[in-house]
Specification:
With 146 residues, this protein is α/β, with parallel strands linked by helices. It is built from 6 helices and 5 strands. The N and C termini lie far apart (85 Å).
Length: 146
């Protein structure tokens, strides 16, 4: 008897079916932060009656020195991305709360967003392009009061 050899596409589908049956998931299936454009963030901030009524927590994950050079209006916290795992409770967020993170370019905030997702927060958003994109769009920047 000659064994039946399936074309490669059948093998791929069979492997995927087994992976799904075993419960394997990838970050592409919901275990990753969402991506938010600066335009979407600006619209959400503009819709809020007040900075505290915006419906999400906005976190600058740059260093305190970078934060001093200007931040997105409505920012609630400045927690360096390297400290987010230890300091996330300072946000006062529940697992179902919406958390938006940004940095200078989007790289460090992506790392912070993934950490928050790993900690169990379900609605974490990384701002694509972060401060670079915000400033390139001509949106306002706030500075700490001295």
């Amino acid at each position: 008897m000659i064994p039946h050899i399936y074309p490669p596409t059948y093998r791929v589908w069979a492997i995927l079916a087994i992976a799904v049956m075993l419960g394997w998931t990838t970050t592409a299936w919901g275990d990753a932060p969402y991506v938010l454009s600066v335009e979407q963030l600006k619209r959400a901030l503009d819709k809020a009656r007040s900075p505290k009524d915006k419906g999400f927590i906005l976190v600058d994950v740059r260093t305190p020195e970078e934060h001093q050079s200007g931040y997105i209006p409505g920012t609630d916290f400045n927690i360096d991305f390297r400290e987010i795992q230890e300091r996330h409770r300072e946000l006062g967020a529940k697992p179902d709360d919406h958390i938006v993170v940004y940095c200078q370019s989007g790289h460090r905030s992506n790392i912070a967003a993934n950490i928050l997702v790993d900690l169990g927060y379900k609605y974490v958003y990384n701002v694509a392009g972060s401060m670079n994109a915000w400033q390139a769009a001509g949106y306002p920047v706030e500075y700490p009061k001295r």
